[in-house]
Amino acid sequence: MSSADILPSCLMADAGVLASPDFRTALDALPVAVYMTDADGYVTYFNRAAVDLAGREPTVGKDRWCVCWKLQRLDGTALPHDQCPMAIALETGRPIWGKELLAVRPNGTTALVLPYPTPTFNEAGVLSGAVNLLVDMTERRSAENDSRYLAAIVESSDDAIVAKDLNGTITSWNLGAERLFGYTADEVVGKSITILMPPGYQDEEPMILSRIRSGERIDHYETLRRRKDGSLVNISLTVSPVRDADGSIIGASKIARDITGHKRATEALAARLREQASLYSLAERQQRAQDIEEVYDASLDAIQSALSCERASILLFDKSETMRFVAWRGLSDQYRQAVDGHSPWAADEKDPEPIYIEDIAVADISQELRRVVEAEGIHALGFIPLVAGGRLIGKFMTYYDLPHAFADSETSVAMTIARQLGFSIQRLRAEEARQRAEEQLRRKEAMERERAAELMAIMQAVPALIWITRSPDCTEIAGNRAAYDLLRRPSGSNLSLSAPAGEGPDNFQVFSQGRLLAADELPVQRAARGEEVPNFEEEIRFEDGSMRHIFGNATPLRDATGAVVGAVAASVDITERKVAEEALQESERRLQIALEAGRMGAWEWDTGTGHVIWSPGLESLHHLEPGTFGGTLADFKRDIHPADLPLVELEIAKALKTHENYHVIYRVKLPEGSIRWVEAFGQFSLPGTGRAPKLAGVCMDITERKEAESQRSLLVAELSHRVKNTLAIVSSIARQSFSTNPELREARDSFNARIRALAQTHTRLAESSWSGVSLETVLFDELSPYSDASGSNVSLSGPTTMLPPKYALTLGMAAHELATNAAKHGALSVKSGKVAIAWSVDPEERRLHVSWQETGGPPVPEPKENGFGRLLLERVVASDLGGEVRLDFASEGLRCTIDVPHPRKP
Question: How far is CA 679 from CA 125, 129, 644, 671, 821, in A?
Answer without folding.
Answer: 113, 120, 12, 19, 55
